[in-house]
Design brief:
By secondary structure, the protein is mainly alpha-helical. The protein is about 65% helix and about 0% strand. It is globular, with a radius of gyration of 17 Å.
Length: about 170
């Protein structure tokens, strides 16, 4: 799919990608859902790690929009991080959720997905996709933040889970 350029496409693609992600998770056995990935990754080691990262990014974008969009802060600057220090921020997110069970993480993700969709739904086409509608946004359109924290992030998660499924199949052969 191509990158969304209007509100309806953004909503549709987000919904489709989110549902695809949940189907991938639900089609795994409970043991597979809770297992550590067999491939080497220092941070996102299991499905819970991926799900909580998606959830936390939803919350950051919502919080940024509600409180800081008119300031001179980007999403990550608000938390004391820069775009260059994203790996450190994602590590902090990983640490925060290490004791969260997967079922709770999935509930949190579903709730934050609904919240970010409510935010998208509340915005008109101009606010989402008109260049420099919000002059203090570091990137040109608000929709780019929302695409990055939903559609693009869901696709990243789907790719990770497909890699995990391939590794499961290889182990069975």
């Amino acid at each position: 799919m191509s990158r969304p350029t209007d509100k309806q496409t953004l909503i549709s693609q987000n919904t489709d990608s989110f549902n695809k992600l949940l189907r991938l998770i639900n089609n795994l056995s409970q043991e597979q859902q809770l297992a550590t990935f067999p491939f080497n990754n220092n941070r996102d080691r299991n499905i819970r790690d991926i799900v909580t990262r998606l959830h936390e990014w939803h919350l950051m974008v919502i919080d940024w929009y509600q409180h800081d969009r008119l300031s001179n802060k980007s999403i990550v600057n608000k938390r004391g991080y820069t775009w260059q220090s994203l790996p450190n921020l994602n590590q902090l997110i990983w640490e925060k959720y290490q004791t969260t069970p997967l079922d709770i993480a999935l509930k949190k993700l579903t709730e934050s997905h609904q919240q970010i969709h409510a935010l998208i739904d509340s915005l008109n086409e101009e606010k989402l996709f008109i260049n420099k509608y919000y002059p203090r946004i570091y990137i040109t359109i608000l929709g780019a933040y929302l695409i990055a924290s939903t559609y693009n992030h869901y696709d990243w998660a789907i790719r990770r889970l497909k890699g995990y499924k391939r590794s499961i199949i290889k182990q069975l052969i």
